[in-house]
Design goal:
The chain is α/β, with parallel strands linked by helices. The protein folds into two domains: about 1-220 and about 415-470, Ribonuclease Z/Hydroxyacylglutathione hydrolase-like (Metallo-beta-lactamase, Chain A, 4-Layer Sandwich), CATH 3.60.15.10; about 225-410, Rossmann fold, CATH 3.40.50. About 30% of the residues lie in helices and about 20% in strands. The protein has helices at about 35-45, 65, 70-75, 85-115, 130-135, 230-240, 255-270, 280-295, 300-305, 325-330, 350-360, 375-385, 415-425, 440-455; strands at about 1-5, 15-20, 25-30, 55-60, 80-85, 140, 145-150, 155-160, 170-180, 180-185, 210-215, 245-250, 275-280, 320, 335-340, 365-370, 390-395, 395-400, 405, 435-440, 460, 470. It has a seven-stranded mixed sheet with strand order 6-5-4-3-2-1-22. Strands 7-8-9-10-11-20-21 form a seven-stranded mixed sheet, covered by helices on one side. A six-stranded parallel sheet has the order 14-13-15-12-16-19, with helices on both faces. Helix 4 (about 85-115) packs antiparallel against helix 5 (about 130-135) and helix 4 packs antiparallel against helix 8.
Length: about 475
């Protein structure tokens, strides 16, 4: 039995971990790598394994950096099942279609510019038909219901535990018969935080022999989730004083719904002046409908607010936009407003057009409420928060950032260093043979390894892409 790290290894995107058990291969996640366009295209197109050899995929959640390359996997020969929770499958049904559509439109736009410069065109990674096909391969199982993987003769049992990260997100526990001796492997997926809006808190998966743990914020610390309301109120109030626009890059699934939830609470409490909020993302509209279909994932506070009559997914001042012409009209509006749009890391979609039209106006505010990976436009915007007249490129054209850039890290759906440590302290340290840190950038991973080592954890590995380890 062995494991090969094929993505999210010393980086936070492209989650892919390949398990080989008795000659058969299981893929944990099949995420899309996000970063520099040409590098990303190459990494997403070329797997470190033959997709036709994969027996099945076990999916932690629907975010594109964990699920976004499933259509490519299927197009290149993968024929097995994709196991996930019901909410994850429902979100993937819109997110993968949207991913294919956005790719086709963005590539069309970029290629027009490339043609003018006599540069060769790019191709989309996969098509709408590829996305539709892979959705037929899903097989769903609810939280905490152990199931057998097809094709493994009863040798591999799997359980999904709530990760508290986004709707339907799960930690994955595999119990493997390895030569008669059972071995338990745990994968945190993306580990959420306690007391976040809407969702239940992460649950403990139980002790394991091998653990793959995310490390996005290893060595870094968030503002407490309890400060979200005040931070949001202060940022919106300050921005509205300039009569400008508030541009919010946001993940369509999870973060957008959490932001609307918090604005709805502030409105219901009479703490905000009247202003228009536009959710300019067809995917966000559809994702919000799926949130409403899965109340089994909601926490007690959300149940109570719904019971008291609060529309937690939008009031009268929240308008959801699907039509592209309506989206374009937002660029000419002179009234103060908030525009929430995808993608969350500013790498594709309508947010690029809103940023291009608004970052050079000092009256406006760009509000960052999510993680921005290295080499993304979102990371460049964070750098602009403390560097006057910082220059960024959007669709290959240079723009000077004059808008205020505000970073609200209390919204993060990833556990920070203390929260990861608190979670890991529940495990039997003496039982863990290897603790692999994945889904993190090297500085944070090294910081987290030092913290864990000082707290009695041993055998901590930070695998690079392509590294393989034997599991006994």
């Amino acid at each position: 039995m062995k494991i090969k790290f094929c993505g999210a290894a010393r980086t936070v995107t492209g989650s892919q971990h390949l398990l080989e058990i008795n000659g058969k291969k299981i893929l944990l996640d099949c995420g899309m790598y996000q970063g520099k366009r040409e590098e990303s295209y190459d990494m997403n197109k070329n797997f470190l394994f033959d997709p036709a050899d994969i027996q099945c995929v076990i999916l932690s959640h629907a975010h594109i950096d964990h699920a976004g390359n499933l259509p490519m996997l299927s197009a290149k020969g993968f024929k097995g099942f994709i196991y996930s929770t019901p909410a994850t499958r429902d979100l993937c049904s819109i997110m993968l279609i949207d991913s294919a559509y956005v790719q086709e439109k963005d590539i069309e736009f970029v290629n027009k510019r490339r043609a003018k410069k006599h540069q060769p065109p790019f191709k989309a990674l996969y098509t709408l038909d590829d996305a539709k096909q892979v959705l037929t391969q899903f097989k769903t199982v609810s939280y905490n219901k152990q199931f057998l993987l097809d094709g493994f003769g009863g040798e591999v049992k799997v359980t999904f535990c709530d990760a508290g990260h986004i709707l339907g997100s799960s930690q994955i526990v595999l119990e493997v018969k390895n030569g008669g001796k059972p071995v338990t492997i745990g994968f945190t997926g993306d580990l959420g935080r306690k007391n976040l809006p809407i969702l239940k808190d992460p649950e403990f998966m139980g002790s394991v022999d091998y653990l793959l743990c995310e490390s996005t914020y290893g060595g870094l610390y968030h503002e407490p989730a309890s400060t979200i309301e005040q931070s949001l109120l202060d940022t919106i109030s300050e921005a509205l004083k300039t009569n400008g626009k508030i541009i919010v890059p946001s993940f369509s699934v999870g973060r957008t719904q959490e932001l609307i939830y918090e604005i709805s609470k502030l409105n219901a409490a009479g703490k905000l002046p009247s202003f228009q909020v536009y959710v300019d993302s067809p995917l966000s509209v559809n994702a919000t409908a799926i949130f409403k279909m899965h109340p089994e994932c909601f926490d007690e506070e959300t149940y109570n607010l719904i019971a008291s009559g609060v529309n937690v997914f939008g009031l009268d001042n929240v308008k959801y936009i699907k039509d592209v012409e309506e989206s374009k009209k937002l660029n000419s509006t002179k009234l103060p407003c908030m525009i929430i749009s995808a993608s969350g890391m500013c790498e594709a979609g309508r947010i690029l057009h809103h940023l291009a039209n608004n970052v050079e106006n000092a009256k406006n505010t760009v509000m960052i409420i999510g993680y921005m990976a290295e080499n993304t436009l979102g990371r460049q915007l964070i750098k602009a928060s403390d560097k006057p007249n910082y220059k960024i490129k959007i669709f290959g054209e240079e723009h000077t950032v004059k808008a205020k850039v505000k970073v609200l890290n209390a919204f993060s759906a990833h556990a920070d260093s203390n929260e990861i440590l608190d979670y890991l302290k529940q495990f039997d340290k003496n039982r863990i043979k290897k603790l692999f840190l994945v889904h993190g950038e090297p500085p944070q991973q090294e910081n987290l390894r030092t913290i864990l080592d000082s707290n009695g954890f041993k055998n901590i590995e930070i695998p690079a892409r392509g590294d393989t380890f034997e599991l006994s």
